[in-house]
Fold these 4 entries.
Entry 1:
Amino acid sequence: MSVVEVDYKHVVLDEKGVPIIEGTTMKVTELVSEKTAYGWSPEELCINHPYLTLGQIHSALAYYWDHQEALDQDIERRLKQVDEIREQNPPIPLVARLKEQGLI
């Protein structure tokens, strides 16, 4: 895998130019999405990702805040792709039954 070093310790760009946490496959946008969705603090992110250090998490979050507009656009684009895939594929029978029963 080819990576490009950036000015943020622990953050590199992969061959597609996507910022990831160095030595992992964790995208900065994935970490930010979890922080937003669950309201997790950096410490809670560290607990839920024990393979990441607090320094790696803070560096990734700093990268996000300095590149927020571009990364928010990437997150939005990815969410739209997920919605399109869901629309194109009917739910599996189990999911349909659970929805009918009001369980999900």
Entry 2:
Amino acid sequence: MGTSNPTVEMVNDYLAVPLGQIFLRMLFMVVMPLVFASIALGVAGLGDIRRVGRVGGKAIGYFIITTALAATLGLIVVNFTKPWERVSPETRTALMERFQKDASNRVEARRCPRSDGHPD
């Protein structure tokens, strides 16, 4: 048994993927309002606008620092492990052929978002 098994493909296509999408959408329906409410209540609880500025500045600074650290760590790990070297040339060629048309369609859709073919 493997991914080429028709039973596995059917279970994946008709059961796992739809249930996974439903789960993720329900999770977002719960998480997004909770995050918004907690941020709004936090800002409202501060009261003084000067305190909002100070806390907001700290939050933005924290966000920038953690984002830079995450990007740096990701680049270090990828350059250290070099995952692209583990893919055989045959697999690389097959993947390029398989996804090249989809990538081209997405690039073209970005260039011409209007239905008449003219870019915005």
Entry 3:
Amino acid sequence: MTRIVTETERLRLREWGEGDSDRFYDVMNTPAVMQWLGGVQEREKWDAAVERVLGFQRDHGHTFWLVERKEGGELLGFCGLKRVNAQGTAMTGEFEIGWRLRESAWGQGIAKEAAIATLDLAFDRFSAPHVVALTVKGNRGSWGLMKRLGMTRRPDLDFEDPRFGPELNPTIVYRIDAPEWPAARRRAIA
């Protein structure tokens, strides 16, 4: 049995368990979902990414948790909190929120609902002084959600990620500080 981290009205965020990597890979490794993440991944690269995700849970007590629909248990994607591990940035080790949803879950407010729950955990349970979110300029859906969550665009923190080519660089950064979250949260759920 995997541990449930938190629940929202419609969603359950939980730790990864046996078989989850295969299920996630099968529904998430599509051209549309992976468009802004370096493209469809070979299985070996995916397995290495899952090991990093599990390592964050082990080492820090948080990670990009699986997101399931409470009713029926459908795997929708992930959302959670990890530490920045990208190369080429002074932000290594900072709290980072991230999300990735399967195509059938887009446009339903699921990412926002899961992200609000994650930011609640970041500031309440994990005492984060601030949280960053990373994306690329072309990923309007992602940075649009960052803005709706009350995060501020921080061009001074942008960086070049050597894992990606020019089409996915620079990495752009949004940030929210703990004292800003209560008011931002009220606006986000309004």
Entry 4:
Amino acid sequence: MTQELWSNVDRYISDLLVLPDAALDAALQASEAAGLPPINVSPPQGKLLHLLARALGAHAILEIGTLGGYSTIWLARALSTGGRLITLEADQKHADVSRANIARAGLAGTVELRIGRAIDTLPQLAAQGHGPFDLIFIDADKPSYPDYLPWALKLSRLGTLIIADNVIRKGEVVNASSEDARVQGVRRFNELLAAEPRVSATAIQTVGGKGYDGFAIALVIAVAVENL
């Protein structure tokens, strides 16, 4: 198995099952032109997020980590009528690119982009009475993943789906002695999921154009008293 094969299969899946889309293609092109890192979800992964949100009938979605807005567009398009998506981005340059991409997709009135470190903006959301969210997608700085989980739970309801990207790290997640803060961040996040009685969780490994990584998926099966 090689990266070339994984990429070829990704292209096959995209060509067969992910229809061409001008707004999504433009978002990728604008992100590349602006020099944003090419770490957005792949087209098949974007459609997976879209389908999961649609299956939930999601009316409120929270995204932690916007980058160029590619996954934001996929998720926002899945919202039920009148739904709303809030996306959090720490980097001003990324936010500027994503705001333009979201507007080009016709979603400026559906998506609210908040700029600042998520560890600062998440408490603001809670204090302002936002939530509960039907789906929460975490795709931001990996060392902070353990800090984001408690806030995701606080902003959830019974039945909320919490999805976290990049939790396998090319298999390095099994390396307990790794000196990579990103690996240790997702290891701790996965351990917290495993110990958390309010969720039922799993993780899946993925290969494709983005290489070898994976998603963690957690269903909220109980909520804390303060969430009621």
